[in-house]
Structures are given as structure tokens and as C-alpha cells.
Amino acid sequence: MIKTIFAQVKQYKRVSIITPFITGLEVVMEMLLPLIMASIIDDGIEKGNMQHVFLCGIIMLVLASLCLTLGILVGRLAAEASTGFACNLRDGLFSNIQTFSFHNIDKFSTAGLVTRLTTDVTNVQNAYQMLLRICVRAPIMLISALVMSIVINPRLSLIFVTAILILGTILFLISRKAMPLFNRVFDRYDELNASVQENVSGIRVVKAFVREEHEKSRFIKAVDHIYEMFVKAECTVIFNSPVMMFVVYSCILGLSWLGAKMITGGSMTTGELTSLFSYTMNIMMSLMMLSMIFVMMTLSMASARRIAEVLNEQVDLVSPKEADFEILNGSVDFEHVTFGYGNGKPVLADVDLHIRSGETIGIIGGTGSAKSSLVNLISRLYDVQGGRVLVGGKDVRTYDLETLRNQVSVVLQKNVLFSGTILENLRWGDKNATREECIRACKMACADEFIRQLPDGYDTYIEQGGTNVSGGQKQRLCIARALLKKPKILILDDSTSAVDTATDARIRKAFREEIPGTTKFIIAQRISSVQDADRILVLQDGRIDGFDTHEKLLKDNSIYQEVYESQTQGGGDFDENGGKD
Description:
Elements lengths: L1 H5 L6 H33 L4 H50 L2 H5 L3 H43 L1 H48 L1 H6 L3 H26 L2 H26 L4 H42 L20 E8 L8 E8 L4 E6 L5 H6 L9 E6 L2 E2 L5 H7 E4 L8 E2 H5 L8 H10 L3 H4 L9 E2 L8 H13 L5 E5 L7 H14 L4 E5 L3 H4 L4 E6 L2 E6 L1 H7 L1 H11 L13
Parallel strand pairs: 3-10, 3-11, 6-9, 9-10
Antiparallel strand pairs: 1-2, 1-4, 4-5, 7-8, 11-12
Helix pairs in contact: 2-3, 2-5, 2-10, 3-5, 5-6, 5-10, 6-8, 6-9, 6-10, 9-10, 14-16, 19-20
């Protein structure tokens, strides 16, 4: 985990090395100040040597100025290194997430990934800045002050050694108990983010069903869980503060008592006791800083573990070493394909299909019949568990992934538009597409007509998630975006469900006339959306129940007959001929 996290320091290694070095130099200069103060008292004031006092005073002023300058420099360098490190972590996380297959993404919740990119990275950033400054400063100060104390009076320095041993043991015990609690806290953060995300994305449904109070109670419940876990964790960690203060004041009392006796006995000078008090405060301050580090590190280790989980996640779908970069045509073959999610029961069993390039294939089936799972295998969003899928006569696993997915255009069930203009959204299909090409694609998808009615036409700004367009308009824009890729295979996964049947028919008519050479898969619930297809695939529980033309399925396939009759017994769709006129 540590190796994975610190591998993201990258170009900030130099700054990260320089910062502790300057910090050490600053601390060494600070440690000289009490010695000079002791010399002022013993060799200057008590002996009446004012020249020595002035000389030592000037030296202390110079050292203090240098310490100030170095402190400012260290603060700036530590901030640069920690913020740069956080930037690299976020970039590394996001870049790795972009390479994930659907199987990889299924392992993490959306809210969990958001928490890792925000809260967890911020915790690690703060810990890293503390590591560069305080984690270096505190040990050096502790060791230097302890060494100076031993040089001045070995007997009294035993007080500090005892204090360090007691404090270290107590902090270790607190850490062991606090770490599991902080791990559970961040799991609660995931729940909180999930609650917020779900509420905001479904706010229209919440208001339509007047469920605001229910959502508030869900949110409060998630917040209360975090509160309870944090209080429990902090109640464990907070013990370090009273223990620290007890050790500090015990050291001061012990030093005052024994030091006074030694001065009276003549075995110690006033200047030496004064410098020991200064070193006492340095030692206690360094112990206090170590206590702060302990709290921060305990918190950040939980975050670091969660970040490392994403960074270490191995992508299970990659391009082969000697990948094929050319797809000859849009033919698709399923050769005895078996597929399932994880270790569960296969959702597709022994699927054997052979589709010619340029064919239009309709796919229907009940909920859970694995229609989407079937087409997801074509663009290799998942890998088969048995058999193989061929595109253009070659196994999809032999192709370069980018090449394959550029030639297989998919319009998924959940249509997503991004914030930006309509043109910017369309050019996801082809970043170099001209305005004329975008308009042509929109005409095929029957989107041009409503776009021209918008105030700014193709330059109309789409809000995040496409909230300022209707469901049918969103679907048509997504279809146009897919067409701009000029794919050899086009998959419409129930992507005209929000479009009226007349518009649906016009879209299919445009496909027949404008892109006859493209292999088209149309998943739909309406018979009218697939009845003009060259062949129609009927799926039932992940198996092929029928695969033939509309007319033959009406004669021979009971499932198809039942669906057809249920949709047409009321006299047929009111505009079923809309696309043939």
C-alpha cells in the first residue's frame, strides 16, 4: 500500500527531499539558542561581561532570523509537494478508473469512488504535508534536545527518556484501537455520498411523490452513523492529549525539584538549568507534535488503504500484445457462448448465432432475459466464459480494444449527456466531425427538427445529465452521437423507448436508407420497433427461443405470438404506419 501511494509523488520527489533537509537545518539552529542563552547567563550576566552579552545577543538574533527564513521556505515547499502529490493521486485514480472494464467498475460503488477522489485524497495530502514538516521536525528536535540535555546533565536527562517511553507505549495502544474505527468511518462516508447522489439525481421523482421528508430522514440517518463512528474513534484518540499534558507537567515538576537541589549543592549552574528548561519545552513540544502526527496518520492510513485499492485494481480486459487493428466488416458470430457475472449462474447459455454484415437484427425478450448482456459481449465490455464472439470473422479478444469499440457503436439503456453544447455532445462520436456531419446524423436520428426549435439551435447548452431536454430528445441525441462514429456495427439497447412509434419508425427508415451496410442490433419491448428487421431474436432466460423473420415467428414461436397479441389486441399502434408513408 505505502509503495503504491508514494509512487504518485513523481515529479515532486526533489521538493520532497529538499524540504526535510531544510527543516533539519532549521531545527539545528533552534537547538543552539538555549546554549547561547546559558552562556549569556553564566559567562555574561553573572560575571558582568556585557560585551559577551551583546555578542551572544547578536548571534541569537541572526540565528532567529535564519530560522524564520527557513521556516517560511519549508512551509512553501511542503505545500507545493503535498498539493502536487494530491494532484497526482487524483490523476492516477481517475486515469485508472477510465481503464476499468464493467466488471472492475462493479466492484466499487460510484459514491465510494467519489469519496476516494475527494475526502480520502485530502486526508492523505494533509498527512503528507505533515510528514514533510512535522514528521521530520519533531524527531530531529526530540533527538537534538535530548542529546543537548544529556551533555548538560546526564542524570536529569533520564526524566525525558522515561517520559518518552511511557508516552510511546500509550500512543501505540491507542493507535491499535483507533485504526479499525477510522476504517469503518470512511465506509459510512460512502453511504452518505450515495444518499446525496441518489437524491440529487432523482430529485424530480422525490418531489413528484412528495418524499422530501423520507429523503431527509435517510440523509440524517447516514449523517448520524458518521457522527457516532467519529465520536467513538475520536474518544479513543483524544486520550493522547491528557496523557501528553500529564507527561509534560510531570517533567517540568521533576526538573524544577531536582534542578533546584543541584544548584543549591553546586553541581549545576543557573544557566544550565535555564537551558534545560528550554530543552524540556522543545522535547515536550516535539512529543506533542508526534502526538498530532499520530492522530493524522491514523486517519490518513485508512484513506491511503482505500486509495490503494483503486490504484492496485488490475484491469481484466486489455488489448492483446499483437492486436489486430483492422475490422473487415460488420458480421457477428456467437459460437456456443456462455456468460455470467462473477461466480453466479450463467445469464447466457450456449448461444449460437451467425449474423451477416449489414443485417438488421431485432432482439426482444422479457426482463432479465439477458438482451443487454448479449450485445455487451460484441464490443467486449465483458469477456465470455465459454465459447467465443467473432466480429468481422475474428475473435473480439484479438482486436485492439479502442479499434473494436470505435467500430461498434452502442446506445445504452441509460442515455447520458454531458454538460456542454449540443455540438460538443455530438462530437463525442467524432471529435473532428463538421457541423454538416452533425446535422446529417441528427436528421437520421430525427433530432434535427427539435434542435432547430431551440433558442440557440446546435449551440444550445445542455445541463449536466441532460436535464433541460426530454427523455425522447435525449435518446435521439445519443443515437445521433453514435451514428457520427460511422460504425460497422450499431447497437440500440432499448434506446427508442421514450420516442413515439411514428418517430421510431422514421428513425428505422433512415437507417435502412442511409446506412444499409451497417449491421444493426435493435433491442426493444415494442414489436413495432423490430418487425421490419431482417431477423428477430427471441431470448428467454438467457437462451435462444426463436430466431427468424417476423412472419415466421408469428407462425411458429409462442412467446413472440403472445407479445404480439398483447400489443396489438387493442387494434394496433395508432401510428404504426408512420414510417412507411
